[in-house]
Design goal:
heterodimer; A: alpha/beta; 6-stranded mixed β-sheet; 4-stranded antiparallel β-sheet; 27% strand; globular; B: alpha+beta; Alpha-Beta Plaits; 2 domains; 4 strands; elongated; binds adenosine-5'-diphosphate; binds magnesium ion
Chain lengths: 222, 337
């Protein structure tokens, strides 16, 4: 589903954030990405989101070579990749419902269809009763769940999460992870960046270890 | 830390079954999509308008600036059109007096009149014989007895020529005057065409000035709307980033700002129209009184329906264009990082 083929990324500043990265993630897999701060985790995810382009090598998602996507095709590609960020990126000028509905409205779904799917997604993350709230009134964990609902509402085949539990306590982290696991169980390919070793152990999933822009580990046990 | 392992260790059990839902179902039917697209246009249009009304003071400032920029050339345009009207009505009443030589018999003068009456640049022509002229002078001046005591009629015969519209242009008048003067029976031709010439020259210059001014002010509207839109884009930066990240196309991101520009333009145009209407209403009374003093039926003319519509639409298009430029310059700089 996701394949990196000798991918290097050098930023304009001259810093090489990724060096010849090779790996493959199968359809329906759930993978963790770990490594020290500055190891290149976010950079790797940005390459998948096409927020950055590789300086060398190729990234394939769902059999498509991302190098070949024109800027006009990027929006349509992104609709198939859900993203969750540590800093949620929720919009505080609208309700929880409208935040989650955004990807559907953009994709041109009818209001009826949008309403149905938003409620299904909010139900899934346990926030159906908060749909009319402003996200600013929600707790950190709830906000993160709204972000997850927004990421999955369009039923993407790939879900990326960059430090989704970064500022949550262990209990809330476990809840969030449980959610990801549920989405994975219905077939969504999931990649989660995290440096929380305890959490990685608990999840017992495949882990890609990054260090100074290179893959230094690939397997369950850390 | 373990070394890199070429064969990765998979802990997953069997791959999950292919999802029957997902990408296939998430693509709604084409008709629905079109409806949704139309729906997005109308909701975006309404939404942008409501957004403007939510900050009424700030929006009103922009609207007023646009309105003034639109109203100023419109006022000059209306003024010019009205001056032109006055010019035409004066020209209509203008006559060329052709004085014939003394002793030209009435029958020859009459023949000349008939010959000239067929010209296309002459609308009407009448002959006033020396006798008739003297009679008129007697009654008009009240000097009947003195006139009666003259043993000879001192007045020449006169042909009063009314030029047609084609003969009223400065060039036409000049040509006509030459024809009339070259006639052997003619002693003199009186025509005050200097002012006609000047009026036409003035109108030509004024029209250029108004056009240049309108272009300059249109540029001003572009800049004002462009700058306002730039601020709006800056204010909604977070939203733009999120929209782009979840797959919003450039067209989708542009749309609300283009509508905002359109509303600024249309709103400004409408306010300009209201200002113009009030101004004209306010001036119409005094102008009518003034015209009556000069026994003129002249009345102030407004823009009329079609021109009013054009004015508002033109303002709208200018606003849209300003937004378009701002969006093109600033939106591409906002990319999720
Ligand atoms: N936009 C950028 N321009 C220049 N350097 C960057 C940029 N983004 C990240 N980097 C650098 O690339 C390296 C990897 O960053 P990142 O991928 O964010 O690491 P991580 O997410 O693992 O902490 C870091 O050294 C960081 O300073
Ligand atoms: Mg990071």
């Amino acid at each position: 589903m996701i394949r990196f083929d000798a991918v290097s990324k050098r930023y304009a500043s001259g810093h090489e954030a990724l060096t010849r990265v090779d790996f493959e993630v199968d359809r329906g897999e759930m993978v963790f990405l770990t490594g020290h701060s500055g190891a290149g985790k976010s950079t790797l995810m940005k390459l998948i989101m096409l927020m950055e382009r590789p300086t060398q090598g190729q990234v394939f998602v769902d059999g498509r070579n991302l190098n070949r996507l024109s800027s006009g095709q990027i929006p349509y590609y992104r609709r198939n990749v859900g993203v969750v960020f540590q800093n949620h990126q929720l919009l505080f000028d609208r309700s929880v419902f409208d935040n989650v509905a955004l990807p559907l409205q953009i994709a041109g779904n009818s209001p009826a269809e949008t309403g149905r799917r938003v409620r299904a997604a909010l139900d899934k993350v346990g926030l159906l009763d908060k749909e009319q709230h402003n996200p600013i009134m929600l707790s950190g964990g709830e906000q993160q769940r709204v972000g997850i609902a927004r990421a999955v509402v369009n039923k993407p085949s790939v879900l990326l999460a960059d430090e989704p539990t970064g500022n949550l306590d262990p209990e809330l982290s476990a809840e969030i992870m449980d959610l990801f696991r549920q989405f994975n169980e219905v077939g969504v390919t999931i990649m989660i960046a995290s440096h929380d070793v305890e959490l990685l152990k608990r999840m017992n999933k495949r882990v890609l270890g990054l260090s100074h822009g290179q893959i230094v580990h690939d397997g369950v046990v850390w | 830390m373990k070394p890199v392992r070429p064969n990765r260790n998979r802990n997953d059990q069997t791959p999950p079954p292919a999802r029957p839902q997902g990408a296939v179902q998430s693509k709604s039917r084409l008709g629905d999509r079109f409806d949704a697209w139309m729906g997005h246009h109308s909701t975006t249009a309404i939404d942008s308008l409501l957004r403007l009304l939510r900050t009424p003071l700030q929006s009103l400032m922009t609207w007023l600036v646009v309105a003034i920029a639109v109203a100023l050339p419109a006022v000059l345009y209306i003024a010019l059109a009205n001056i032109q009207n006055i010019g035409y009505s004066w020209q209509d009443s203008s006559q060329i007096s052709v004085f014939l030589n003394k002793k030209v018999p009435d029958n020859q003068a009459e023949a000349l009149r008939q010959r000239w009456a067929e010209r296309t640049d002459i609308a009407a022509i009448t002959y006033v014989s020396p006798a008739a002229a003297l009679e008129e002078f007697k009654t008009a001046s009240g000097l009947g007895q003195i006139v009666d005591s003259l043993d000879e009629n001192p007045l020449p015969g006169v042909l009063l020529v009314q030029p047609s519209l084609s003969g009223s242009t400065p060039a036409g008048l000049e040509a006509l005057e030459k024809v009339l003067r070259d006639e052997a029976l003619v002693a003199d031709v009186r025509i005050d065409m200097q002012w006609v010439k000047r009026l036409h020259q003035f109108m030509a210059v004024a029209q250029h000035v108004v056009t240049a001014l309108a272009a300059l002010l249109a540029l001003g509207v572009l800049l004002v709307v462009g700058n306002t839109i730039r601020l709006a884009i800056e204010n909604r930066r977070d939203e733009i980033l999120v929209v782009k990240l979840v797959g919003g196309t450039n067209a989708y991101v542009r749309r609300p700002f283009l509508y905002t520009g359109l509303w600024y333009g249309l709103g400004g145009g409408l306010i300009a129209l209201v200002l113009l209407t009030i101004g004209l209403y306010w001036l119409a009374g005094p102008v009518a009184q003034l015209a009556d003093l000069y026994q003129s039926s002249f009345r102030l003319q407004g823009l009329g329906f079609i021109h009013s519509l054009q004015l508002v639409l033109l303002a709208g298009v200018t606003g849209l264009l300003g937004a378009w430029i701002a969006v093109g310059r600033h939106l591409s700089q906002i990319e999720p990082q």
